[in-house]
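To: structure desk
From: M.T.
Subject: fold request, one chain
Message: Could you run this one when you get a chance? Sequence is below, nothing fancy, just the single chain.
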Amino acid sequence: MTGTSIAKMIATVKAVATTPSTALVAGATAVAAVGSVGVVTGKGSVDSSTPTIFVLKGVPKPTPTPTPAPTPAPSPSAKGFGLGINVAPVDYYSNEYTFMNLVSGHGWVDTNNGWQSLPNGQLDTYGMPKQVPTNKSYAYVMTPPSQVFNGQSVAIRCTWAGSGDVNIGGSRKNLVRGDHVLTFDWPAGPPPEGNTRNWINVSGVPANDPVRDLDCREKNAPRDQMFASQLIDSLKPYSVLRFLDWSATNTNPAKITWAERTLPTGVNQGDHARGVALENMVLLANTVGADPWFTIPWNADEDYVTRMAKLVHDNLASNRRAYVEIGNENWNYAFPLAHQIQSEGLAAGLDTNGFIANLKRYSQKTVWAMKIWAKVFADRPGQLVRVIGSQSANPWVGQQVLAAPEVASNVDAIAIAPYFNYAGDVTGRSLVERQASLRAGLAQTMKDITGNQDTAKQYGKRLITYEGGQHVVDFTNGGAARVQDINRSAVMYDLYKSYIATWKSQVNDVMTLYSATGMAGAGGAWGIREYAGQPVDQTPKRKAALEFGK
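Reply: Done. Structure tokens follow.
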């Protein structure tokens, strides 16, 4: 798809979602109403890049939403500017160094079966193989420590309990074996990807004494240190940490239960169908000294939502607030969840128009989830911020969801994603011309938020951002280099500084950027840095953001 056709599609989609009478889908076909857009990538993650058209295949039954007993509405949380960030995924290829245990950002694969993922039934509750049959070998790709991106070799020590053969594959050097211990050197790799992959191999593992308590970390790192030091240091400037990419929200598994959730010491923190352990989200927020922002998976049952709220209530530091929403961009048809919500709304007879049925169902389930959280936090309501999402470029969406039954009395804030992009077609334009177009696009984005400000004021709600930043993509020939050039240019520092300062002056509430770390390419440059440990003088977006940090 060319850059021109992408731009036309985005323009068309925004046009159709402007009023109820033309607000998208009637029947089986749906096109995304775009605030920030995204597609599901082959890696199973979501890459915010280009809108996609989907065709619904039948209408599933709505997920049950029992109504909890009414609870007193929490008092509105204090308003005031704070800079937030969406934390990066824990995937080994994300260029983020999250957990000290490098066995955390992947899953086990069968090396005798084309490196296909092992079924969950072959893993225990901590994500370890229950056994490895004879003539089989299972592997787990480890997450690179950030030092390798910066030209350093890192000494690694692996330990475990149980029986079986444990080995290291990949580019490792100086491998030394001991009793239930291996040491090796992880060689430096060029940034931003540090292409020196290493993986754990296990074989000959019996069912009665399987390999367990597997841990690989920097040789001199404390065994009880959960998070990489660079992660903690890199996040301390932010007031809010949004955990979208640590949750199962965008993957939207059909069933989410408490019994099957990820455990905090499991090696399956990168399991997209379960997400990172909630305990680790709370622990990171407490460690950094930031307010956590949780996204509840849409298909989580009532028991899960209740236990999730209780876990946060009982473990979050007393001086911290919890932001919470259900789903993510539930009106965005580039995500499969939007189709499910629309189908539930139509099946329940909430409206005959597909898009409006989606918004009404989203509003309905938001009320359900927020009542559960409000009941759990009834003893300290000011520690809870209940959020409902809307579209930055289309304030009509926010008006619809806040006007829905009981929403206004059960949410504290409306959240938007005011991404900025080129003001027009920049095909064939020079870097300087593209920078000028992006500056004009930024000005338009900040002008457009006034409609959302009016809606928030009308209902007495806070206006905050759940995501934000530049939204440059380029799928034409040479597009990856152009995306990288503009994101790495000094002008991007000026744009981000103006962007954040204008929000602070105009809205004076939380601005949460997307995202902490991520590679730059044709599909976007979503990270404010490209790899963990990247020098600040090479990260114009992050350099600007740090000037507004706490």
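Reply (cont.): Residues 1-76 have pLDDT under 50 and may be disordered. Let me know if you need anything else for the meeting.
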